[in-house]
Every structure is written in C-alpha cells, then in structure tokens.
From TrEMBL:
Lineage: Eukaryota, Viridiplantae, Streptophyta, Embryophyta, Tracheophyta
Family to which this protein belongs: Belongs to the ABC transporter superfamily. ABCG family. Eye pigment precursor importer (TC 3.A.1.204) subfamily.
Example GO molecular function: ATP hydrolysis activity
Cellular component terms (Gene Ontology): membrane
Chief location of this protein within or outside the cell: membrane
Domain of life assignment: Eukaryota
Topology class, membrane: Multi-pass membrane protein
The protein's name in its UniProt record: ARABIDOPSIS THALIANA WHITE-BROWN COMPLEX HOMOLOG PROTEIN 11, CUTICULAR DEFECT AND ORGAN FUSION 1
The ABC transporter domain, residue ranges: 26-271
Localization in the cell: Membrane
C-alpha cells in the first residue's frame, strides 16, 4: 500500500521565533498515556507525535473512545492521577510550565450561572480573573470587547437560563463559555468538543468565531479542539488535522492534504461527500484495513 509522509516537520527556527514573538508553539513527541486498571496497564495513547502552530487551528478527530479528550488533556496538563504519561511536551522547544493566563481550556459542559445575564457573567469573570494591574474600567472594556468578539453583543442582557427558565441558545452558551476563557487573552486555547450538542448552523457559528479571533485582535493564538463529526463547512475552518484511531495516529498534517493521503492509501473520498465523514467512516468500518493502514503509515 502506497503511503505519503503524513508527518510534517517543524523547521528549526520556528520554536525560537515563536518564543521571541511571545506566542506558543506546542510540540509533543512520542507521547504515551497509560491507565492502570487493576493488574494491567492499558495504553490509551500510543506514541503520538505532532505540533500546533501559532495562528492555526488544529482539529483532533477520531471515533468515540479513540483518545481525543485524553490527548487534549495531556497537552493541557490536565490528566487525572490514575494515568501515567511518557514522552515530551514542549513549549517553544523547551519543557516548561506556562505562566498564568498563557493557556485556557474550554470544557464540554458550560459551567455558567443560570441567573446571570451575558454581560454580568463576563464582567464578574473579568473582575475576578484579570490581573490587579488592570483598572476596573480597563477590565470592563476588555469584557465588552470580548463579548463583541464572540458575537454576543445582541444578547448582553439575556439571562443564561436553564431548566424551567429559557435563556441563551446552546450555541450562545458555548460562545459565552469561550468568551469567559479568553478574557485573559491566552496564547494557547484548548477546546473539548466545542460543538457537541449543537446543530450544524450553531456549530459553524461557534467555530467561525473561534477561527476569526486571531484576525480580530491580532493575537496569533494556537488553538486545539477535539471535534466530533464536523460538517464540511466547519471542517474546512481548521488548518490542520490530527486523526486518531484506538490511540494511534492515522493522519497528522495539513487538512488540505488529508484527502490525498486517504486516496493514495486506497480510500478515496467519493465526490460530494463530506471528507470528515469519509475519514471517520473509513476508520470505523474498515477496522482491519485501517490496522494495516496504520502499520504502513507509522
Ligand atoms: N482515567 C481513565 N481510566 C480508565 N479508562 C480511561 C480513563 N480515561 C480514558 N479512559 C479510556 O480511554 C479511552 C479514550 O478515552 P477518551 O475520553 O480520550 O476518548 P474520546 O475519543 O475523547 O471519546 P469520546 O469521543 O466518546 O468523548 C476510552 O476507552 C476511555 O474509556
């Protein structure tokens, strides 16, 4: 089976120039994550290598249970204590801990207070999260700017809402959660399934807002999101793809080269089919073929 090089290389100067520019170039090398369940350890991630660049969005995709959240948590330093991690995770080429506010993690569940409005949620978070070196009015200004960046200006006075009290839509809640996490202008943003539970239009709106953040405020963020079955429009908002199956890398590289990679390995994407559906179907359906595919490409 023919294979192409799915592992793009990091150019020598990229990590050091990211450090000079005060952005984050995240690299992981031969990353293993094992969980201890009784007598035997089970490898959830098996020797993953990749990177995420400033100014780009990386999608982590794969079938349910393949290890997407585990990879995201390992990169964010949020693995739970029962797991063991081996391998290197480097920031701008070095092993280092990130300063407060450098990175943010948006979880799948929106941890919002139902009785607050959008503006109250963001203003209060700004007062609590932003450094004391910022004045009250600077914090308020930052909160307003961030609300606009996430396209929530028309819902400023809408309550979050919950059971029995309708408030924000699911997509608006997700954008509010992101809004709160990006208040401190993190250079590295992790999102765990930011579109889960949303319809395709709301998903597109959420990811488009995330994708446009870098253009709007000029901060070249490094953005990594795990994502389930994105529509074609959502899929094409990402720059790079990390495709996993059973804890192993199926593909890592530019999104634009993934079709060619699958085609040259005997799995061309049918015309008019959403490529992300095709990739996930291929991994799920042809399990034995994919095992052989993994062996040839690793
Ligand atoms: N702490 C843990 N203890 C035991 N097993 C774990 C633990 N964390 C993850 N796993 C197992 O590792 C595998 C990968 O889990 P993970 O949540 O990373 O998958 P996922 O791709 O994010 O799944 P989904 O798309 O369904 O959310 C699963 O089989 C899960 O049961």
């Amino acid at each position: 089976m023919e294979s192409i090089d799915s592992k793009p290389r990091v150019s020598a100067g990229e990590s050091s120039s990211a450090a000079a520019e005060n952005v984050v170039f995240l690299t992981w090398k031969d990353l293993w994550v094992t969980v201890n369940n009784g007598k035997n350890g089970r490898s959830i991630l098996q020797g993953l290598t990749g990177f995420a660049r400033p100014g780009e969005l990386l999608a982590i995709m794969g079938p349910s249970g393949c290890g997407k959240s585990t990879l995201l948590n390992a990169l964010a330093g949020r693995l739970d204590p029962q797991t063991r991690q081996v391998g290197d995770i480097l920031i701008n080429g070095h092993k280092q801990t990130m300063a407060y506010g450098t990175s943010a993690y948006v979880t799948q569940d929106d941890a919002l207070i139902h009785t607050l409005t959008v503006s109250e949620s963001v203003y209060y978070s700004a007062q609590l999260r932003l450094p004391d070196t910022m004045s009250r009015s600077e914090k308020k200004e930052r909160a307003e700017m961030t609300i606009r960046e996430m396209g929530l200006q028309n819902a400023m006075n809408t309550r979050v809402g919950g059971w029995g009290a309708k408030g924000l839509s699911g997509g608006e809640k997700r954008r509010l959660s992101i809004c709160i996490e990006i208040l401190a202008r993190p250079k590295l943003l992790f999102l765990d399934e930011p579109t889960s539970g949303l319809d395709s239009a709301a998903s597109y709106h959420v990811i488009r807002k995330i994708a446009s953040l870098n253009q709007r405020d000029g901060v070249r963020r490094t953005i990594i999101a795990s994502i389930h079955q994105p529509s074609s429009e959502v899929f094409h908002l990402f720059h790079n793809l990390f495709l996993l199956s059973a804890g192993q890398t199926v593909y890592f590289g530019a999104l634009s080269a993934a079709n060619q990679f699958f085609a040259s390995n005997g799995f061309p994407c049918p015309t008019l089919q959403n490529p992300s559906d095709h990739f996930l179907k291929t991994i799920n359906k042809d399990f034995d073929k994919v095992r052989c595919f993994l062996e040839t490409t690793s």
